[in-house]
Each structure stands twice: as C-alpha cells, then as structure tokens.
User: What shape does this take?
Amino acid sequence: MPPRRRRPPRAGALSEFPPLKIIRSILLLQLAYYATAILLILFTVVVFGQTFSIELVFDWNIVKRDNTLGWLVAIVWLLASFLT
Assistant: This one.
C-alpha cells in the first residue's frame, strides 16, 4: 500500500505570516533606512560645509525649492530609500 500523501497547508494559514516576524522585518527595514540616511546626510552635509542636525533626517521643512541644501537633502533621502 503506498504511503498517504499529506495535504498542503491551506492558503493564508496563520503560520505563513507570523505577526512577530512581520514586525521584526519592519523594524529592521526602518533601522537600515535611517542608518543609511544618517550616514549619507552626514557625509553630504560635511562635504557641503554645513552643520549636521537631526532635523535634516526627519524634518520636511528643510526641503525647499529655493535653496541648494533642500534639494540636496531631498536627493539624499531618495538615494537612501533606493539603497535600502
């Protein structure tokens, strides 16, 4: 008699998407993004000759069309998002 075949797990089973694994993945992705963004913005600001502040990473008011630093920070934000 051939051995019985096991049924495949149903689609969308809870074991396929454990909540703690999803939360851990989100946190690791956020950590990687902010670490990359801080390093790139720190390097860019030092080369640009400005002082580094944490507002450059988190504040949208820095990004303006009328100054070079705003354009530069926006481009570095995009570069950090593509790298992570």
